Amino acid sequence: MRCPACQHDNRPDRRFCTECGARLPASCPACGAATEPGEKFCGDCGAALTSGAAAAPAHSPSTPVPQLLADKIRQGRASIEGERKQVTVLFADVKGSMDLAEQLDPEEWSAIMQRFFAILCEGVERFEGFVDKFTGDGIMALFGAPIAHEDHAQRACYAALHLRDAARAYASEVRARHGVPFAVRIGLNSGEVVVGRIGDDLRMEFTAQGHTVGLAQRMEALAESGHICVSEHTARLVEGFFTLHDLGRTQVKGAAAPVGLFELGGVGTFRTRLERARSRGLASFVGRERDMTVLTAALDRARSGGGQVVGVVAEAGTGKSRLCAEFLDLCGAQGIPVLTGHGVAHGKSIPMLPMLELWRAFYGITDDDPPEAARAKIAGRLLLMDDGFREALPILFDVFGVPDPANPSPPLDPEQRQKKINNVVKRILHDPAYAGGTRVILLEDLHWFDGASDSFLETFVESAPATRDLWLLNFRPEYQARWMQRSYYQHLPLQPLAPDAIRQLLRDELGGDPGVAGLPEMIHTRTKGNPFFVEEVVQTLIESGHLAGKRGAYRLTAPVDALQVPTTVQAVLAARIDRLGEREKQVLQTAAVIGKTFGEGLLQRVLGRVTTIDEAARGQAISTLIASEFLFEAALYPEVEYSFKHPLTQEVALRSQLRERQARVHAAVAQALEEAGGNLDERAAEIAQHWAEAGDAGRAAR
What we know:
Elements: H1 67-76, E1 83-94, H2 97-103, H3 106-126, E2 130-134, E3 138-143, H4 152-178, E4 184-195, H5 211-222, E5 228-231, H6 232-238, E6 242-250, E7 259-267, H7 273-280, H8 289-303, E8 308-313, H9 320-333, E9 338-342, H10 353-363, H11 371-385, H12 393-399, H13 414-430, H14 432-435, E10 440-444, H15 451-463, E11 470-475, E12 489-493, H16 499-510, H17 519-527, H18 531-543, E13 547-550, E14 553-556, H19 567-578, H20 582-594, E15 597-599, H21 600-610, H22 615-627, E16 631-635, E17 641-644, H23 647-655, H24 659-675, H25 684-693, H26 697-701
Parallel strand pairs: 4-5, 8-11, 8-12, 9-10, 10-11
Antiparallel strand pairs: 1-3, 1-4, 2-3, 5-7, 6-7, 13-14, 15-17, 16-17
């Protein structure tokens, strides 16, 4: 099956392109004919389609998990056989289902619920959630496990809103056909759970467990019909990204203290972490003078007549978005037009999402514009440039989701359609009316782009030299593309902030009260110059009551013995660890138990005791972890020593493991240290600590 975005040939059973990740056209499982979303039966052979009204639940025992999700789960399955995970749990069910079932024939009720289960599973899996189990009249779903997501709470909220709206539409259908009310309630809660083993058929052999799950179920029970009830733990993670209505605090069974409840209303105003940080009050912009100079020089070259492309690359939280935002403010102050598009974590399955945002800005289309106004803006802008664009308008209207009923788009196969759209884009970029001035185009988070958006980005980059534009792109190190080899492309790696810059940032944030004087050094030691981590640690201290006051004038209200890892930071790091291969993840987790710094020989001996990875594969895994900047070589003589690049990475990798595995690895470390020989008195405290952590107090004392 040929991908419409990149033209790669895929196997017939693929749902997404294995080259670029774009969704492939659906086909009938019986005859192979092309099908459209929403069709219940094949138009060629009459076979039932899995999206039809009588479809079974999306991955009940009779139907498989969607291929893309299944591949991701299988990739890390063996490494998540019993782990601690930060997740958001979603419960959804039919209110009063027993009364409804009594009013209907069992066969009718079964058909209603089968369709309902299909709606629920489709909504959950749309945002890469996992349906953990069916509860008779509903489901329990996990976001953040078995696939870790740094935005698990946001994904769960998007899924809940989608399910609420889909269930309301389905309820109208049930009421009209069967004459009974059909109301759905949804509950969400976020926190830490223990996730059990996953079998070969992708079913949980035992489910996620912990207080977090029980509290999510309580949220569902407290939700009104047709509404979504969210706990304070989830609300804290998604505030601003969604509209939340405070329902007060309620004593919930199983919770020691009253729990804050919120109703999830809809999508909020924030789209990025930077927007949320701006609402709190941005921290000082420090330590980026050299990087701003690089961007300013690139803008000068673009103004001189040669389009430029700059890629800002760094790990999450290093300050890519903040740097770009400060630069765009400078451009705006000079009257330079700015266009923006953003990738979002759940957007890989939504074709063209960031590009449509960019194009809507280009044409001046707002969310309030009706289809007629949107079509008028597109046509007005293009026909003013060149009347020859008139024939392409129907296709462009389709792309923007505002088709013209009087002039529909001609039927084209996906390849022809993609070529026509690419040609229009190239004509726009090379048109004198467009290329006459300088623009700055910011595209953020390319690592979350779908395949079709990546394809268009390549078209834009190829056309950049013919313009006076500066294309400013940012992404994480794992993102790679062919256009990075172009001579007019400049790579700008962003480094963590230097110690002096961090101290200045914290001085501006905390103030000069003597009680907080020791915090900057503690925070810098923990965060290693990552601005996002710094801000989240400070915010956690405020929320926990350790700091009181206001920005620039905080005072310490309780001693800070140790700095907790904020849940937001933990989710970011856990998601990065989960992207590792199974072998590399096992090595990293084992190393985390040994300590921040460890010798190569010790690591090899311990791995030999607690894993089945052979020595050659262990060496390859260590090399991969160094190349991915999880570890670095701390010493070469007399023995090679490795160290974690970031102390929080070690802590998250350690915390993700069940205590049983930690104890087993601690015991292996203690035995390996004893067997290494030498002066054991020098390492007595270290050996004793590992035996104590392994639960063997006798050996620890000896």
